[in-house]
Amino acid sequence: MRSIPPVRSRRGPRRRRPAKLHADKGYDYGDLRGFLRGRSIVARIARRGVERSDRLGRHRWVVERTMSWLNGFRRLHRRYERKPEHFLAFAGIAAALICHRRLTK
Fold first, then answer.
1. Residue 1 lies in a domain
2. Of 2-6, 16-20, 32-36, which range is least confident?
3. Among 36, 68, 91, 102, which residue's CB has the most CB atoms within a 10 Å radius?
4. What does the alpha-carbon distance between residue 57 and residue 24 come to, in Å, rounded to a whole number?
5. Is 24 part of a structural domain of the chain?
6. Could you give the angle at the alpha carbon of 102 between the alpha carbons of 99 and 105, nearest 5°?
7. How far is CA 83 from CA 34, 43, 46, 86, 87, in A?
8. Total number of domains constituting the chain
9. Containing domain of residue 42, as a range?
10. What are the pLDDT digits (tens) for 50-89?
């Protein structure tokens, strides 16, 4: 006897499990490593006191640099838009402008 019907439809594209996780020393915990291993995700986490995290920085810097470029657009930084469709449209325009600027240099 079910009072609530099961949810059958999904909205948006199906999410994919990442193959690798790059993280710094702040995430070096056995429980987290075990959780990732159980989900078949390769963990690239610098170990505290053993490994330097400089090598991991080259992967993380790309994401941080891209977020910095997107934060340069004030409309995205302040989140003026209420509807997510409008916000995503402005994010797409910002990404197109960033690519155009990089390609015309």
1. no
2. 2-6
3. 36
4. 8
5. yes
6. 145
7. 39, 36, 39, 6, 7
8. 1
9. 16-55
10. 756 556 555 566 667 777 888 888 777 666 777 888 888 8
